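Hi V.,

Quick status before I head out on leave. The structure for the redesign project is tokenized and pasted below; the design run finished overnight.
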């Protein structure tokens, strides 16, 4: 299975043979630009559902509120919120409650 995956990576141009380290475990070790992309920090939103629709948060619809990454189900809602934070009390109340719950839970951690 590893050889097949290695072949696919090399043929797809994701990596060169010199960038792939042989490994006997079940994981594949990649260095170079492919590894950097895999290690790039992906922001994780505080909420998993959109405050407006209840639909799952979309990866392309994240913004920042009070220093936290928050999300919406689409870019239109994200952009509307970011441009009009003070005029969106339902959204801010939703995020304020999520922030309070997160901070409360974090305070209880050892």
């Amino acid at each position: 299975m590893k050889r097949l995956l290695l072949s696919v990576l090399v043929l797809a141009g994701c990596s060169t043979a010199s960038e792939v380290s042989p490994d006997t475990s079940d994981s594949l070790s990649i260095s170079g630009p492919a590894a950097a992309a895999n290690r790039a920090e992906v922001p994780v939103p505080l909420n998993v559902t959109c405050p407006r629709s209840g639909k799952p948060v979309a990866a392309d619809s994240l913004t920042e509120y009070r220093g936290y990454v928050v999300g919406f189900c689409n870019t239109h809602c994200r952009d509307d919120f970011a441009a009009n934070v003070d005029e969106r009390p339902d959204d801010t109340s939703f995020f304020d409650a999520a922030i309070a719950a997160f901070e409360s839970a974090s305070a209880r951690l050892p």
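Above is the designed sequence. Residues 43-110 form one domain.

G. will cover questions while I'm gone.

Best,
W.
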